[in-house]
Amino acid sequence: MEEKLNDQELARREKIKKLQELGVDPWGKKFDRTDSTKTAKEKALNKTNEELEANPIEVTLAGRIMFLRKMGKASFFNIQDKEGKIQAYISIDSVGEKDYTIFKACDIGDIVGFSGHLMLTRTGELTVKVTSFTFLTKSLRVLPEKFHGLTDVEERYRHRYVDLIMNEESKKVALLRPRILRSMQHYFDSLGFVEVETSVLQPILGGANARPFITHHNTLDKDFYLRIATELPLKRLIVGGLERVYEFGRLFRNEGMDYKHNPEFTTVELYQAYGDLSSMRELAEGVIRNTCKEVLGTTTITYQDKTIDFGKEFRWVSMTDLVKEKTGLDFRGNITFEEAKAFALSKGIKIEEHWTSTGYILNALFEEFCEEELIQPTFVYGHPIEVSPLTKKSEDPRFTERFELYINGSEIANAYSELNDPIDQKERFIAQLKAKEMGDDEANEMDYDFLEALEYGMPPCGGIGIGFDRLVMLLTNQRTIREVILFPTMKDVK
Questions:
Q1: Which residues contact 404 (CB under 8 A, 6 or more apart)?
Q2: Of 150, 265, 295, 479, which residue is least crowded by CB atoms under 10 Å?
Q3: pLDDT of 426-472, one tens digit each?
Q4: How many domains does the chain have?
């Protein structure tokens, strides 16, 4: 069904003909800029209008018209580029009758280029006095005055291109995200890590406990998974002798959507041969603190209504101690599964069918009663073996050498002293297969190739995965993950 055009949209299409009659291509050609709005402002910084007139500063700019005040023989307009906005003054005397006629055919939203010199208006506003004008692109849609910012947030995500035009905060986040990524890359590189790329299509489900997306390869006539983690391929590279590797990887999990979950998201996973959990603790604290300093210029941030301090040493506390503190039950003691199950039920915890030992209960109690209260950066260590199939056992074999980093009640990172015993690893995979048979859709499958790799020998190794989107949320003070992913997954419009 063809969309019906409103009067303004029809008028804009009529202006295409007018531009063509004036010899103008409505969709433009290459235009060489000398400056951005930011550099133009920097050139005029602290200069008076008299100084600008005595020593003219010439600039050539391009951008989208965001304001128009057309008058008879002279007009004002504002353009916006990636760096910001600047005002321009154009007159028939400065550009000639033809170019001024072309300008008069412009609408808000059109993209134009121009050259001129900098001046200050009577009110002191920096302005470009236009001496030549070039029309570049006709906008056929009318920009909204306020792009549903308060009334329909989802509309902003569906039409991110309009959001970026109209919303300075969205543009700021979009530009900060790659700066955060580059800072982390440089930090890892400085420690001798090598950035690698591994396959998104994987024949075996593994590396995390999550429900996958499944796709089909026609030539091989075989189902593949979109990867839920980069862990197992990266560990193979440790076996191969690369020693220190990391990957910023797009992952896919066929699960729910909320303010901190999107089916398609980004993590960075990193593995260090001859390291362990303490190596990952040092690295996680170091990279986050360094990124804050480099990108934000501070180690203390405000997130919503909370102040979070990355300058202090992060807290280090066991999962069992936190659960004991909140519930009174000490899982370091000799608690039977039935006792733990009865306790959990009394606390309103739903018991899953595949939970057959106390570790599952411990993890559920932690998630229910402890997670959300961990506001300042906190390493929670000592996870039960049942929920850590790829991690080395602690001295107490019920627990593993693993930590999760929590900030503002959300898991930001997950780290292990990696399991490199192929015999133990096979037993863990078998346990995962049993859990899958009992209804655990997120359990790992048996990865025989990975077991073979371990049999060649993987050195003692520390590994960590950091939720990049959630870290960006924190550092840009965004309440939802959809604000930091340019094109989040959305429900269909009914």
A1: 379, 380, 383, 411, 413, 414, 415
A2: 150
A3: 998 898 888 888 888 778 889 999 999 999 999 999 999 999 999 99
A4: 2
CATH number at residue 479: 3.30.930.10
- Confidence at residue 162, expressed as pLDDT on a 0 to 100 scale: 95
DSSP 208: S
pLDDT digits (tens, 9 = 90+) for 9-20: 999 999 999 999
Separation between Cα atoms, residue 127 and residue 186, nearest integer Å: 39
Sheet holding 402-407, edge to edge: 194-195, 244-252, 264-273, 461-467, 410-417, 402-407, 378-381, 315-318
Whether residue 299 is found in the same domain as residue 414: yes
Are the C-beta atoms of 383 and 399 separated by less than 8 Å?
yes
* Token representation of residue 106: 């412009």
| Residue 321 burial (C-beta neighbours within 10 Å; 0-12, 13-18, 19+) | middle
Q: Residue 373 in contact with residue 410, Cβ under 8 Å? A: no
pLDDT tens-place string over residues 323-374: 999 999 999 999 999 999 999 999 999 999 889 999 999 999 999 999 999 9
Q: Work out the number of other CB atoms within 10 angstroms of the CB of residue 396.
A: 11
Q: How far apart are CA 46 and CA 120, in angstroms?
A: 11
Which domain covers residue 117, as residue numbers?
7-137
Distance between CA atoms of 103 and 135, rounded to whole angstroms? 8
List the structure tokens of 489.
């997954």
Asked if residue 199 and residue 56 are part of one domain, the reply reads no
**Which stretches of the chain drop beneath a pLDDT of 70?**
1-2, 146-151, 494
User: What are 120's two structure tokens?
Assistant: 């200050």
Question: In 3D, which of 370, 369, 398, 405 has the Cα closest to residue 384?
Answer: 398
65-75 pLDDT per residue, tens = 999 999 999 99
Kindly report the pTM of this predicted structure.
0.92
